[in-house]
């Protein structure tokens, strides 16, 4: 399955820019959706399901773990791949994230082409 769309959920506009740039350089045909926090992402996901979600942990309004809890409870169909992209190097954050069946990867910022190759591999590209 080719990646056609990715939702990037991050409150930092610089990180959003880096993700957008990296994704477009990796494959300019991928549609990049953006949300600044988990609540905005949930609203967006009521309208469409992207192929992948790249999620930060530390955000105001609704952090990454609060998003994952609500996403698991509210949606019966999940994006094929959810990956956390964070500056957190805490093992407990990685362990907590990977407890969700739809979370497939955990990357450290910044987003890199290698991360996108992993996502593509998880989607069967």
Structural key phrases:
125 residues; alpha/beta; Rossmann fold; 5-stranded parallel beta sheet; 5 helices; transcription regulation; Sig_transdc_resp-reg_receiver; transcription; Bact_response_regulator
In short, what is this structure?
This protein has 125 residues and is of the alpha/beta class. It is built from five helices and five strands.
CATH superfamily: Response regulator
**Estimated helix fraction:** 40-55%
Quaternary organization? single chain
- General form: globular
SSE ordering: EHEHEHEHEH
Unreliable spans? none
> What is the CATH C level class, in words?
Alpha Beta
Average of per-residue pLDDT values: 93
Strand numbers in spatial order across the main sheet: 2-1-3-4-5
Q: What is the overall number of helices?
A: 5
Structural class: alpha/beta
Number of strands: 5
Alpha-carbon Rg, integer: 13 Å
Question: End-to-end span in angstroms?
Answer: 5 Å
Percent in strands: 15-25%
Q: How many distinct domains?
A: 1
Largest sheet: 5 strands, parallel
Please give the CATH architecture. 3-Layer(aba) Sandwich
CATH topology: Rossmann fold
What does this protein look like?
- The protein has a single domain (5-122), classed as Response regulator (Rossmann fold, 3-Layer(aba) Sandwich), CATH 3.40.50.
- Helices cover 40% and strands 21% of the residues.
- The chain has helices at 13-26, 38-45, 64-74, 91-97, 113-122, and strands spanning 5-9, 31-35, 52-55, 81-86, 103-108.
- Helix 2 (38-45) runs parallel beside helix 3 (64-74).
- The longest helix has 14 residues, at 13-26.
């Amino acid at each position: 399955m080719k990646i056609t769309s990715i939702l990037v959920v991050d409150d930092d506009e610089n990180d959003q820019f880096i993700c957008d740039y990296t994704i477009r350089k990796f494959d300019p045909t991928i549609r990049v959706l953006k949300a600044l926090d988990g609540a905005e992402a949930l609203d967006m996901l009521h309208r469409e399901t992207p192929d992948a979600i790249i999620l930060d942990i530390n955000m105001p309004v609704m952090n990454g773990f609060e998003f994952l809890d609500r996403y698991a409870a509210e949606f019966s169909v999940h994006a094929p791949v959810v990956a956390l992209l964070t500056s957190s190097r805490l093992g407990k954050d990685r362990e907590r994230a990977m407890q969700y069946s739809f979370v497939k990867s955990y990357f450290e910022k910044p987003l890199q082409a290698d991360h996108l190759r992993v996502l593509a591999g998880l989607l069967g590209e």
